[in-house]
Write a structure and sequence with these properties.
There is one protein chain. By secondary structure, this protein is an all-beta fold. 0% of the residues lie in helices and 51% in strands. The protein is built from no helices and 36 strands. The strands form seven sheets. Strands 28, 29, 30, 31, 32, 33, 35 and 36 form an eight-stranded antiparallel sheet that branches. Strands 2, 3, 6, 8, 9 and 34 form a six-stranded mixed sheet that branches. It has a five-stranded antiparallel sheet with strand order 5-4-7-1-10, with no helix packed on it. Strand 2 and strand 3 form a beta hairpin. The radius of gyration is 21 Å and the shape is globular.
């Protein structure tokens, strides 16, 4: 049987019941949903979701289901059919007879009004090949311009383990007094709130490293969340990303944007090796390549870039709006170095980032994060478990695929349950990108909230996202974004 970990914590993975409110972390009442996709197009997947409360190895609930061949299912933790108790906070293990992939949305129960805005983030379940004995978080914060963070660490074993958390500031300096240690019960999780760590200074922004200390061969999964103050819709940003188990000398970012309908990307790169390196980033926009070269990044140090401030890509501002999205390749100049990275994207409501036009109110305050993809993990098939179209008259999403090869190719795209919507033989340029928005795809109906799978003749990567649609009147951070699954 194949297992997927979903560390849950008001954030990323699965389980918080609709009535749950907590003194720590972002305020409000939170709930979670899980989307799982069966990768086998010939046979159904017999799947079980097993829930473990925070700090407990005792099963809180177990739910069995069958996902048809090539199909997907969405599970709402607050749905009484799952058997999850109210006020649950914890983790879930997904076990399946076939290969499946899952994502988790965690959101407030806000209505999307100005006094009760949306706050949503999404992360990916961690498969057996994703868990390790050490995890890295390139960006964590404590009262940094009203931003804070927390992360959930899940024990991948059925026995108790002990973990240690160490912190570094953005310059790579250790903060030994802030070190934390916890014991985690089998399959359960532990949550670390940076604003509750008295030994982290206010205004801290840096990185965290989590490692198993006993037994040292045990493995963990991790989800990181960071969030703005949430006092109104414009400050409701709520981001989530998976902890990173190892680095690489080369990373891929399938979606980066600059002044794209009000959205801008940021990139945080952490050098997790013991050797210094510079990095070169090749940005691909509108069929053109722009190159950025960094100064030296010391061992364990980080580089933080906000794309509107990167002079090397200033020419992107003169491109048509439709060409201000692209991809990037992040390369360590020192082949011995290992780097990890996350890509943030937000909309701060600045008309200058939208060719002077006003930003739709639904987009102001949106934010999301995904993890850069290590070279060598690209494939000719990518899976997206949840792509909605006008769900509830509010949420629509899409997906974005990026050719990381120097050869052009063609792609076929399938939509769960709607064979007539299949898109055939779509050309993709060398190092090019394709972007799809569900409301613009023929032959899938409003209310579609299911999986997409893409196959190309060249190796590629991708991400999926969704948000409240402009004109819906629903405000706050409804924007989620997470990695597609290369299989």
């Amino acid at each position: 049987m194949k297992k997927i970990l979903l560390p849950i914590v008001l954030i990323a993975i699965m389980l918080i019941l609709v009535t749950a409110a907590y003194a720590q972390g972002p305020g409000g009442h939170w709930t979670s949903t899980v989307a799982c996709q069966n990768l086998d197009t010939a046979s159904p997947a017999e799947l079980t979701l097993t829930f473990y409360a925070l700090g407990s190895s005792t099963t809180s609930a177990s739910y069995a289901d069958t996902i048809p061949a090539g199909s997907s299912r969405n599970y709402n933790v607050a749905d009484g059919n799952l058997g999850v108790p109210e006020d649950f906070l914890g983790s879930v293990v997904v076990t399946s007879s076939k290969s499946v992939v899952c994502t988790v949305n965690t959101q407030t129960t806000g209505t999307g009004s100005s006094d009760n805005p949306y706050r949503i983030a999404s992360s990916s379940g961690l498969g057996e090949s994703d868990i390790t004995s050490t995890m890295y978080a390139p960006q964590v914060m404590k009262t940094y311009y009203n931003w804070n963070s927390y992360f959930s660490v899940q024990n991948a074993a059925g026995h108790e383990i002990t973990i240690e958390v160490t912190y570094k500031d953005k310059a790579g300096n250790d903060i030994p007094v802030a070190t934390e240690a916890k014991t985690i019960a089998g399959y359960s999780n532990a949550i670390f709130y940076q604003d509750q760590n008295a030994n982290l200074p206010n205004g801290f922004v840096g990185a965290a490293k989590v490692r198993v200390t006993n037994p040292t061969d045990a493995k963990i999964g991790m989800v990181v969340n960071f969030y703005n103050s949430g006092v109104d819709a414009s400050t409701s940003q709520f981001h989530s990303y998976n902890g990173l188990g190892s680095g690489a000398a080369q990373l891929y970012a399938p979606r980066v944007v600059r002044r794209f309908y009000g959205y801008n990307s940021g990139i945080t790169v952490q050098n997790i090796s013991q050797t210094a390196t510079r990095i070169t980033i090749s940005f691909n926009f509108g069929g053109q390549t722009f190159t950025y070269q960094s100064a030296e990044i010391g061992a364990s140090s980080a580089l933080v870039l906000y794309l509107p401030d990167v002079a090397a890509i200033n020419a992107v501002d003169s491109l048509p709006m439709s060409q201000r999205f692209g991809n990037a390749v992040i390369q360590a100049d020192n082949a011995e170095a290992r780097i990890v990275a996350i890509i943030n994207e937000d909309n701060r409501g600045n008309p200058a980032d939208n060719d002077g036009s006003p930003i739709p109110v639904e987009r102001i305050g949106q934010g999301s994060t995904y993890s850069a993809i290590p070279a060598g993990t690209e494939t000719k098939a990518v899976y997206f478990p949840q792509v909605p179209r006008n769900v509830g008259g509010v949420f629509s999403g899409g997906f974005f695929i990026s050719n990381i090869s120097g050869s052009a190719g063609v792609c076929d795209i399938h939509f769960d349950g709607y064979p007539a919507a299949k898109i055939n033989d779509v050309p993709i340029l060398a190092y090019g990108s394709l972007s799809y928005y569900a409301p613009n795809i023929a032959n899938i109906p409003d209310g579609f909230n299911a999986a997409v799978r893409a196959y190309c003749t060249v190796n590629f990567i991708g991400i999926q996202n969704f948000a409240a649609s402009p004109g819906s009147g629903k405000v706050g951070d409804s924007f989620t974004q997470n990695n597609g699954f290369n299989k």
